[in-house]
Design brief:
Blueprint (H helix, E strand, L loop, with lengths): L9 E6 L3 H12 L4 E7 L2 H11 L3 E5 L7 H11 L3 E6 L3 H13 L3 E4 H4 L5 H29 L13 E2 L10 E6 L3 H5 L14 E5 L5 H12 L3 E4 L10 E4 L5 E6 L5 E6 L11 H12 L3 E5 L8 H9 L3 E5 L9 H7 L5 E3 L4 H7 L2
Parallel strand pairs: 1-2, 1-3, 3-4, 4-5, 7-8, 7-13, 8-10, 9-10, 13-14, 14-15
Antiparallel strand pairs: 6-15, 11-12
Length: 361
């Protein structure tokens, strides 16, 4: 493998038992001049040894491999040589469950394996993957610099970090929570949703950018850990207080008010022209239309600015919102968009978000 690259080059390792996949991923990544594949491995054990030796910035890791599978390798990597890892995942229900486990163990994101290389959208997928890798590595570098300065562990809050401006939300009777999240979301949601109090007597609506099957597995996992009921939202079901609804992958989640004063969930492919499906903006705009300024908006880790328009609408009618801080985001994109606009009443580290929400009820 070539070694004549600059300090700014993103160094990648590809681990997959398929020679075709190793070659395909390498070609995809190296189509960008800022990324160099410095090693490939045929199984988890070989990959672990390579990662420990080469210390790459990013790793793509298959799950099903001989000798040592991806989950076992991931555990060893995170314990002995922590690295940003993107999993290659099957789009089946079983694949989704294993992927959720991998994200719990510390993987930052995943590539749906069926969509990776034999697909008419290959150019878009490649561009999204490269952009995501660059943002993940950039954010990891920021955390590493802070950790060296303050001698802290990953995701630990520096002593100099404060919730801005007060660490508390303005007093209001919040009747709904609308939360948007993307890259790094499954791990981050496990640090928030299971810690929400039963005192939260309102519905919680979540959009996490994920394919079908994955959102069901995520909801089931969060439900097993949480005091509140967590479920994948279903078309036509009546909204209940104290329930966390996760939009199903590949569909938008909006709300409908009936003439009897009941609110139900609408699951649809429309609008069809959004960048993401499900979309945070589509969900949040709908929640604000039903619950008005009494909606509490929350924007957490993720690329891009999905959620910006929804938060803008909420703020325009006197509502309030929370943004996750830069240091604890896997990718500081979605929160940055609303922070730069001056929207949040509170900018908080990951481990403080549930506490801040609980205090509001």
């Amino acid at each position: 493998m070539p070694t004549n690259f600059s300090n700014n080059t993103i160094k990648a390792v590809v681990v997959d038992d398929s020679a075709f996949m190793r070659k395909s991923i390498s070609i995809m990544l190296e189509s960008d001049p800022d990324i160099k594949v410095i090693g490939t491995a045929r199984d988890g054990l070989e990959g672990y040894n390579l990662i420990k030796s080469l210390r790459p910035d990013i790793v793509t890791l298959d799950i099903e491999m001989p000798r040592m599978d991806g989950l076992t390798a991931l555990k060893k990597i995170m314990k002995e040589c922590p690295t940003s890892v993107i999993m290659l995942s099957s789009l089946t229900t079983e694949g989704a469950e294993v992927t959720i486990k991998a994200l719990e163990l510390g993987a930052v994101d995943f590539i749906p394996k069926e969509l990776s290389f034999v697909n008419v959208n290959i150019i878009k997928i490649k561009e999204e993957l490269i952009a995501k890798i660059k943002e993940i590595v950039k954010q990891s570098a920021i955390r590493n610099r802070l950790r060296k300065i303050l001698n802290l562990n990953l995701f630990e809050t520096p002593a100099v970090t404060k919730c801005f401006p007060t660490g508390e939300l303005p007093q209001m009777k919040y009747t709904a929570i609308a939360l948007g999240i993307s890259t790094g979301g499954p791990f981050s949601l496990q640090k928030v949703i299971p810690l929400l109090s039963k005192k939260i007597n309102c519905p919680v609506f979540i959009v996490q950018h994920m394919p079908p099957n994955f959102t069901k597995s995520l909801a089931d996992r969060l439900n097993s850990l949480s005091e509140l009921e967590v479920k994948e939202a279903e078309h036509g079901e009546q909204v209940r207080s104290g329930v966390v609804y996760i939009a199903p992958g590949g569909f938008h989640m909006t709300l409908l008010n009936s003439s009897f004063g009941k609110t139900s969930i609408n699951i649809s492919k429309e609008p069809s022209d959004t960048l993401h499906c499900p979309s945070v903006d589509v969900m949040m705009n709908s929640v604000v239309e039903v619950y008005g300024k009494n909606t509490l908006g929350v924007i957490m880790t993720g690329m891009g600015k999905d959620g910006f328009e929804g938060i803008k609408k909420l703020k325009s009618i006197g509502g309030h919102c929370i943004a996750q801080d830069e240091n604890t985001c896997v990718v500081y994109g979605m929160p940055k968009a609303i922070v730069d606009a001056g929207f949040p009443e509170v900018i908080a580290p990951l481990e403080k978000i549930s506490e801040i929400i609980n205090k509001a009820f």
